[in-house]
């Protein structure tokens, strides 16, 4: 009966749905060819194929959800780094530096068959300075004999080297135990702050004005640098007072570091985007209004939707726009951003401060939508009415009916519809549109899944 369905908290596969949680970030760092990607594959249990490194190509996806012994975390694979030989040391170090900033725990991979190289030692110095917990993986230890090679790596001064064979899977359990043990107890120190503080990620491709906006937002207001007690790590988040309330801007270190001035900017940007999204509830995506909309802008926005976070669009550099550009911009936005017509938009200038005060109401409405729970009764009377007015088209003499709907979770709102037959994609989109018209959801992705009753 419909009442039975109401007890289920499931996604489309029938798995229980958990509310958005903040996961620890584990970065896998090391020289090219030490086996980072195969180790990441191993950690993921090969459930997710990691795209092989292609020189010159920036991978979209660098962070993957994983779990070990019942604990969930994100693995950041830094293997996408370009691999030309020149300036290798500098690049590996730069890569490690960024990954380390983002990570809660670093897995440093060394090729035990080669031993510690000068580059490895340089990275170790950097890891030490960071104060982040590091677990040393001695890779390519395929058999007992390799254990001696692994033991040599004590010399790096990073503590016990964990011998692994990421190709054969040997030793990865012990390594993961060590990684989990190294995850700081209090990831964000949230408990020590006002409980209601919302977490915001400031995102956008390089040069759209993220650091300018951050400066403007923090400049006149009080900034509390949030050093996590008891660790020596750099503060990664900043608490910013806006509209009389405190907001946690996550991973502002990644914005202030201006890594985009180095080569490989795209890769870093995408790494940062995904790590910041993990920690945020809502993203403000900045777009440079004075320039044509880029594919990378769309990619950042897509990442937000895929991560299920609330979204506010900020069109920046408004001070540079003339009448003609504004006209074209509107057409571009209409054409390229159809998937997020629901996102509130503010036209701002980080330089002059124009309309920055509009961010807070936009954030509020997006987060409110993100948190919304539609009572089951109300949802079903609405569904009944919609279906009566616009029934699913008859296909092959059959007409699938919607039996019942429920919203098992929020952040973002997820709906499960129970139907007597398969619902066409067009009809699902229609339902989502009607749900939005009825209940708002401005600024939040909405997931609608359908379960067909056997
Ligand atoms: P980030 O890479 O996203 O952090 O971008 P930055 O904040 O470093 O900005 C890139 C460049 O754009 C800098 O030269 C800024 O001064 C400039 N910029 C940022 N915001 C604005 C704006 O609203 N108007 C104008 N005219 N320039 C801006």
From TrEMBL:
Query: What GO MF terms are annotated?
Result: GTP binding; ribosome binding
- Subunit relationships: Associates with the 50S ribosomal subunit.
What UniProt keywords are attached to this protein's entry? GTP-binding, Nucleotide-binding, Repeat, Ribosome biogenesis
For this protein, the record's PANTHER family field holds: GTPASE DER (PTHR43834)
* Native source organism of the sequence: Pseudokineococcus lusitanus
Q: Which residues bind GTP 1?
A: 30-37, 77-81, 139-142
The family this protein is said to belong to: Belongs to the TRAFAC class TrmE-Era-EngA-EngB-Septin-like GTPase superfamily. EngA (Der) GTPase family.
CDD domains, alphabetized: EngA1, EngA2
Q: Which gene encodes it?
A: der
Q: What is this protein called?
A: GTPase Der
Sequence positions that bind GTP 2: 204-211, 251-255, 316-319
Q: Does the keyword GTP-binding apply?
A: yes
Q: Name its GO BP terms in alphabetical order.
A: ribosome biogenesis
């Amino acid at each position: 009966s419909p009442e039975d369905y109401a007890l289920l908290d499931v996604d489309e596969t029938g798995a229980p749905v958990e509310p958005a949680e903040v996961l620890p970030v584990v970065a896998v760092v090391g020289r090219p060819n030490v086996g980072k990607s195969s180790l990441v594959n191993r950690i993921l249990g090969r459930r997710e194929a990691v795209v092989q490194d292609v020189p010159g190509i920036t991978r979209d996806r660098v962070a993957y959800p994983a779990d070990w012994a019942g604990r969930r975390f994100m693995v950041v694979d830094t293997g996408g780094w370009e691999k030309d030989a020149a300036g290798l040391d500098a690049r590996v170090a730069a890569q490690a530096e960024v990954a380390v900033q983002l990570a809660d725990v670093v897995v440093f991979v060394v090729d035990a068959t080669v031993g510690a190289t000068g580059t490895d030692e340089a990275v170790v110095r950097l890891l030490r300075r960071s104060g982040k917990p590091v677990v040393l993986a001695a890779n390519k230890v395929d058999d007992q004999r390799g254990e001696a090679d692994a033991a040599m790596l004590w010399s790096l001064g990073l503590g016990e080297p964990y011998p692994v064979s990421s190709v054969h899977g040997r030793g990865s359990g012990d390594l993961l135990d060590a990684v989990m043990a190294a995850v700081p107890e209090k990831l964000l120190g949230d408990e020590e702050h006002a409980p209601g503080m919302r977490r915001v990620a400031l995102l956008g491709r390089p040069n759209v004005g993220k650091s300018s906006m951050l400066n403007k937002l923090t400049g006149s207001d009080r900034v509390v640098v949030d050093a996590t007690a008891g660790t020596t790590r750099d503060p990664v988040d900043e608490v910013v007072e806006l509209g009389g309330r405190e907001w946690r801007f996550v991973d502002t270190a990644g914005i202030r570091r201006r890594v985009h001035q180095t080569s490989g900017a795209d890769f870093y940007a995408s790494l940062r985007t995904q790590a910041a999204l993990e920690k945020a509830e809502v993203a403000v995506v900045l777009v440079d209004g004075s320039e044509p909309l880029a594919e990378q802008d769309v990619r950042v926005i897509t990442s937000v939707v895929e991560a299920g976070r609330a979204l506010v669009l900020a069109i920046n550099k408004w001070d540079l726009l003339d009448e003609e550009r504004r006209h074209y911009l509107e057409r571009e936005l209409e054409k390229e951003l159809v998937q997020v017509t629901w996102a509130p938009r503010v036209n701002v200038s980080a330089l002059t401060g124009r309309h920055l005060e509009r961010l807070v109401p936009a954030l509020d409405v997006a987060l409110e939508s993100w948190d919304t729970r539609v009572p089951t009764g109300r949802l079903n009377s609405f569904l009944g009415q919609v279906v009566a007015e616009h029934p699913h088209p008859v296909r092959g003499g059959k007409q699938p009916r919607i039996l019942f709907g429920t919203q098992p979770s929020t952040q973002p709102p997820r709906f499960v519809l129970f139907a007597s037959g398969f619902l066409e994609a067009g009809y699902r989109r229609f339902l989502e549109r009607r749900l939005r018209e009825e209940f708002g959801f401005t600024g939040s992705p909405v997931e609608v899944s359908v379960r067909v009753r056997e």
